[in-house]
Amino acid sequence: MRFPAELQRHLFEPSFWAAFFFEPQSPKGPDDDRWENVNELKVEFGLGGGYGLELDLNLGYQYYGLGVLTPAQGSPACVGWDDQAHFHPHVFRWDELDQICRAVALAEPVLRHPGAALALLCRYTFISDHDDLDEITPLVDGAFTTLRPEGLSADSYWPQLRDWFDRSDLRRAGVIWTRSEYGNWTVHQDYDAGTSGPTLYSTRWAPESAGNDGFPFAEWREMLGRAQQKIDDAIDPTWRDVPEVARALSDITANRDLTHAAELAQSLATAGCDNLVILRALADPVHPSETCWVLELLTGARPGSLIKAFLGPSPLRDARLFRLSLTLDVVKRPADYDRMVAKEIDRELRAAQLGSAILTGGSMREDWKGSFKWLTASIIIDIRDDFDAGLRIVRQALRSRNAAGKTELRHYYEPFDRVHF
Q: Which of 39, 55, 217, 402 has the lowest CB atom count within 10 Å?
């Protein structure tokens, strides 16, 4: 594993995560500019034998590239990247990401799962209609919770499960996974399905053929095979034949009671298990999902099934994000009028835990003197779950600022319907 000591320190710094996730609303502080010159941080999530993933962090340029590693390659083969211009971050199926993070933890015990690997790599996955949130959200929540430092101030940014969900939710957006004749999963977005929502940006749509220079399907398939082998090799089947181990496993799974996990760890150690990842997850977990995935490993249960059974329904089962585009008339308004409107909407939505708003630009024209005058400002508004309640906040803010003229509010995604305010 190549995990730079510098990056290990950054994992506990709020400003690092604000920069990593392009968080525009992070509080300003004395180290805001420190990331401008951090352009060459590379971390390898190794699976052994030359297989793994490499994450290239260019915080100064706000570009984060992901590549797959195999022994036959001299350098990583690009599978996706994220920036704020030409991003293609939709790389993983969820089951692939979970599989890789489990295998990475088994290969490198210093990296817990859920933990640093999932926290860094989850930006390259997304939720589609076939995914089960009950199996997914406990692990993502656990990844951010595991890294969160104690004593974090209330005004410091820290990534939350809901932040990730709002960026990654492509349900109802016509996203379809298809298994090809070669055994590889490809993904595309059906724009004729009558759905609306975020756009899929992935390199995994490319046709598979000889000489294809798109997504490296062969290398990806090899890497996933290595990950599964690492998982399979972690378990000695004879452990389950030890009466104390079998009894403890039965008590836990039958009663859905994790209080017996430490007892199971002792029984496994007596049976000859010296795997730090397994014993630690049972005896000293940071998050209950850590215990659950190791129980799945020990019992042979389908990944995610015991997480769902033990931890119950996801709090985000019915969550929705409604994105609106506000075009604000700023003609003959004070110079900071657009910022004040955006700030008020953002403040009130956040206070009600209903969303956020950000000023993104606008339009201008040149007058007869050659000077440019702003005509409109653009504000992106996100409303979480309760659209009507969020819209009331937006309406009130616009009324309090006497917004009128060409100001209009529309849905951000197709069919871009106008919203009355």
A: 402
Strand order in the sheet with 51-58: 41-48, 51-58, 63-69, 77-82
Residue 126 tokens, joined: 């997304």
Q: With contact defined as beta carbons under 8 Å apart, do 55 and 64 qualify? A: yes
With tokens 């075009």, the residue in question is 327
Q: How far is CA 98 from CA 49, 69, 124, in A?
A: 20, 18, 12
What kind of architecture, by CATH, is found in domain 321-419? Answer: 2-Layer Sandwich (3.30)
Structure tokens at 254: 């039958």
Tell me how far apart the alpha carbons of residues 186 and 206 are, in angstroms, rounded to a whole number. Answer: 8
Phi-psi sector, 184: left (phi>0), alpha (psi -120 to 50), beta: beta
CB 381 within 8 A of CB 326: yes
- Provide the 3-class DSSP secondary structure of residue 203: coil
What's the Cα-to-Cα distance from 413 to each of 54, 126, 129, 416, rounded to whole Å? 33, 18, 18, 6
Sequence-ordered strand ranges (E) for 49-131: 51-58, 63-69, 77-82
Intervals of CATH 3.30.70 along the chain:
321-419
> Parallel, antiparallel, or unpaired for β 77-82 and 63-69?
antiparallel
Closest CA to 51 of 205, 216, 163: 216
Which residues are within 8 A (CB) of 194 and not within 5 positions of it... i.e. 6 or more apart? none
- Determine the distance from the C-alpha atom of residue 360 to the mean position of all C-alpha atoms in its chain, rounded to a whole number: 23
User: What's the pTM value of the predicted model, to 2 decimals?
Assistant: 0.92
Specify whether the CB–CB gap between 60 and 20 falls below 8 A.
no
CA nearest 230: which of 64, 49, 21, 11? 49
d(CA 73, CA 22): 31
Residue with tokens 């042979």: 300
